[in-house]
Amino acid sequence: MKDRQNIHGSWANRWIFIMAATGSAVGLGNIWKFPYIAGENGGGAFVLVYLLFILGVGVPIMMAEVLVGRRGRQSPINSMREVAIESDHSPKWALVGWMGALAGFLIFSFYSVVAGWVLAYVAAMANGDFLDVGSEQAGKVFSDLLADPQTLLIWHSVFVVLVMVVLLGGVNKGLERATKLMMPALFVLLLVLLGYSMTSGSFGEGLDFLFHFDPSELSWDAVLVALGHSFFTLSLGMGSIMAYGSYMPKNASIGGTVLTIAALDTAIALIAGMAIFPIVFANSLDPGAGPGLMFITLPVAFGQMPGGQVFGFLFFVLVALAAWTSAISLMEPGVAWMVEKFGLKRGPVCILLGLVVWLLGIAALSSFNFGSDISLFGMNIFDFLDFITANVFLPLGGLFVACFAGWALKQKVTREELAMANPGYYLAWSVAIRYIAPVAVAAIFILNLIEKLG
Ligand code: PHE
Ligand code: NA
Question: Sorted alphabetically, which PANTHER family does this protein's record hold (predicted)?
């Protein structure tokens, strides 16, 4: 197949692709979710399992997504179809793209709500609202925010608009420009914060919590959470990376690029943990506090430390930037597909899809106030959306992509796209994508099911 150009544009070079994909990967998953699920699951052993999934499952699947996107040069839905047809398989593989686009919408709806909390905290920090507050008071600030649908709605709306404005600008004027501005700022801010916690927190205790190893603390539940999170954090299983891969230059090596992105994402999650837990321990706060970890314990810590107001403010700005670049990638598959399908401009598409996710987000934010009585499988709407996407949709999407790239595609196609200099690398990828990734995902699903039923 001759290399076509993507109608939406393409990244200027390999580094822009790395930065954009890293922007997608690094988000609330690293800074909000990873520390709190590591905290809930006891740290150490959970972190190790998570790292194994990143390397053995996430990296090969990310390579598969980039490969399919770059081969298809279209939105994930259309790329899956074309690339399937090229290898004499059914165009029905496009359904995997559909499932992914749906997952993107569902993730966006609660992602935007959490990003809204972050924006509210940027304002509160700037205001000095947390100066010298105790954990009870900080907990009250957070629960008051959750109980106030109007304020939540305002910040959620602001976030939806921010994301749609970038998407509207398209690949080069929107995504690429935003990436170039935000990613370097993000790295600098995170390093500043790490330095702060190394000098002001209980650094050793924080490290020990993250890296001690006690396998007896591990449950099947925790393994499923670690698996789901490895997909969530690398933006896999729903088409974001496939869409970004479709804008990738032909001559860039997929293996090296993907390893760089996964390493950056992992480093940032670990650095976030190393920045957060020492502060938590220095103030005798609870590492297992759940989704409130970042929003309750950290402001208390910042409020009590010298320079905490400035660093606290910077911290939430950092999280907002990270959430922004990720949320853009959640919507890109859907936006690209609508542009291709209906020949529309990005403007009307972004307005339409923005409206849809805005409405879905209202359902998610109602979980904490006027919709708190609504229960789906014993969870509120927000928790249900989080659970079903990270622990079901994404691993399932990843499983399908792995089977697609490993078994359905002609080897000629995968060899050509991966263009590995060393034949051993191709073999390693083949084994991972055909056996390790699918078996791991399927086994964990089945074992969890058995445990829930048994
Ligand atoms: N990877 C992002 C994060 O860690 C979330 C995300 C998931 C983004 C799926 C795009 C697609 O926050
Ligand atoms: Na991430």
Answer: TRANSPORTER
